[in-house]
Write a structure and sequence with these properties.
about 35% helix, seven-stranded mixed beta sheet, about 475 residues, alpha+beta
Length: about 475
């Protein structure tokens, strides 16, 4: 386990795990945290995972950990690592099981005083309109051929079917489609798991949340996102690629186990199973992962369609009157082929972001035209009892973290431990006392997602801002929540 004396404090927000901490580390580790946050992180094995990731062939810069870091499969959740295309590897553990678990944020013209009196009606309508819960199935029925179309074209498939519009694609990471996707690299089992689940929220930490803007830190950047005032109502959607993404990860972890032996890759943890980016195994995984990412973007856009339907029904206004426009959609679990400057040279890298958000600055290729002057929106949800943030990427993030920042609050308690602290019904009552109405498919599961199970996202975002790897724009608090 990494101990305090083995880490080097760089400044108030950066701690280094030296490259000589373990024989075999190719780069040092970097943890973004203040001293208080670091004490909480040391309670688990995630810092050891940061050091283990530094063993990956072709890794450049540092093995990075965002302030919301916690233990994960192979990589820590909150981990970022970039490997050279030329001689580096890709690791499914660096993306995780919920491929392209991400966030979509919509703005509205509504104010809190218009929504709060109808929050129960709105949440109940959303709950009946958007399938949620463990093993939930969507309302969309597609054939095997249509499934391949979803995997190949992503959110564009949803637009073609009337579940969104061109403007939604313009403000989605990758415009909702990774071109390297190849449905032939996705197993039949994965496709069969995904076919009935398209357009569903799922379970765990996935949610729909009606939010109200409480603070605006940068009026100009907020206005570019259509956020003009405190009290304005937003809608956040958090889900991913459901059973399809889980199966893709599972399939390729088995394949990568053989690849490690085939390519004689020495690793300190078998969960870091990987293959050279330019090998058949590496290319096949990236093609399948891209399919799962595309599925997730289509999934969130279908859900956004039913969110819009619910708002129009409850408030008796059309979408234009309600101003139900998408601010942005960003992936939190993904591997991307990107160009970054390393040692003064621009090189192509495979950037793993697992529980981390792309955070590109103003003027950077890949930022939508609408946000080119302010930077890419970074969507950072907190727990259901506190708040969430919208930030933007920075130039320092490009220089230091391959254009990445934190993705959320980060767990403090495992799900099992959280259940032992409080009953789900008591959590619901506590939320109600705060004026937050919650619906869920399983009341007892609310205990797993209670505020005490998470770090305070305000602290997490504050560290990211203090380190200069993202800049907060607004803070929003929940009015009503649907938990999967």
């Amino acid at each position: 386990m990494v101990r305090q004396g083995e880490m080097r404090r760089i400044d108030d927000y950066r701690w280094e795990i030296p490259q000589d901490y373990k024989s075999g580390m190719r780069v040092a580790g970097m943890v973004y945290a203040d001293s208080t946050m670091l004490d909480a992180i040391r309670e688990e094995q995630s810092l050891e995972q940061v050091a283990n990731v530094a063993f990956l062939p072709g890794i450049v810069g540092r093995s990075l950990a965002m302030p919301d870091i916690h233990w994960g499969y192979g990589f820590p959740i909150g981990g970022v690592a970039a490997t050279r295309i030329s001689d580096g590897v890709v690791s499914p553990g660096g993306v995780g099981y919920d491929i392209n678990c991400g966030v979509r944020l919509l703005r509205t013209n509504l104010n809190e005083d218009e929504v709060r009196p109808k929050i129960k009606e709105l949440i109940n309508h959303l709950f009946s309109n958007v399938p949620s819960g463990l093993g939930s199935e969507g309302k969309i029925r597609i054939s095997q051929k249509e499934m391949d179309d979803v995997l190949a074209s992503g959110a564009a498939w949803a637009v073609k079917k009337g579940y969104g519009n061109r403007q939604d694609l313009d403000v989605t990471e990758e415009q909702g489609c990774m071109e390297m996707a190849d449905p032939d690299k996705v197993s039949d089992r994965a496709k069969k798991r995904g076919m009935p689940q398209l357009g569903s929220l799922g379970s765990g930490n996935h949610f729909l949340e009606v939010q109200v803007v409480r603070e605006i830190y940068d009026q100009t950047a907020a206005a570019a996102m259509g956020i003009t005032r405190e009290g304005q109502v937003l809608m956040m959607i958090h889900t991913g690629s459901r059973g399809l993404g889980h199966q893709v990860c599972d399939d390729y972890l088995r394949l990568m186990g053989g690849a490690v032996r085939k390519y004689e890759i020495a690793l300190p943890d078998r969960q870091l199973a990987c293959a050279p980016v330019q090998s058949d195994e590496g290319r096949d995984y990236l093609a399948a992962m891209a399919c799962a990412a595309n599925y997730a973007w289509a999934n969130r856009l279908c859900i956004a369609h039913w969110v819009r339907e619910s708002f129009t029904k409850v408030f008796g206004k059309d979408i234009d009157e309600l101003g139900l426009e998408q601010i942005y959609d960003v992936a939190h679990n993904i591997a991307k082929i990107e160009e970054h400057i390393v040692d003064g040279k621009m090189i192509r890298l495979c950037v793993h972001r697992k529980g981390a958000t792309r955070a590109f600055p103003a003027g950077q290729k890949g930022v939508p035209d609408r946000y080119m002057s302010v930077g890419q929106p970074v969507l950072i949800p907190g727990d259901m009892g506190r708040c969430s943030f919208v930030a933007v990427g920075t130039e320092r993030a490009m220089q230091e973290t391959f254009g990445s920042t934190c993705h959320g609050a980060g767990r403090l308690q495992s799900r099992g431990a959280a259940r032992k602290i409080m009953r789900g019904s008591d959590v619901a009552n506590e939320l109600a006392a705060k004026g937050i109405y919650v619906r869920t498919d399983s009341v007892e599961s609310l205990a797993e997602e209670a505020s005490y199970a998470y770090k305070d996202v305000t602290d997490v975002v504050g560290i990211a801002q203090g380190a200069g790897i993202s800049r907060k724009i607004i803070m929003a608090a929940p009015l009503g929540v649907i938990k999967g």
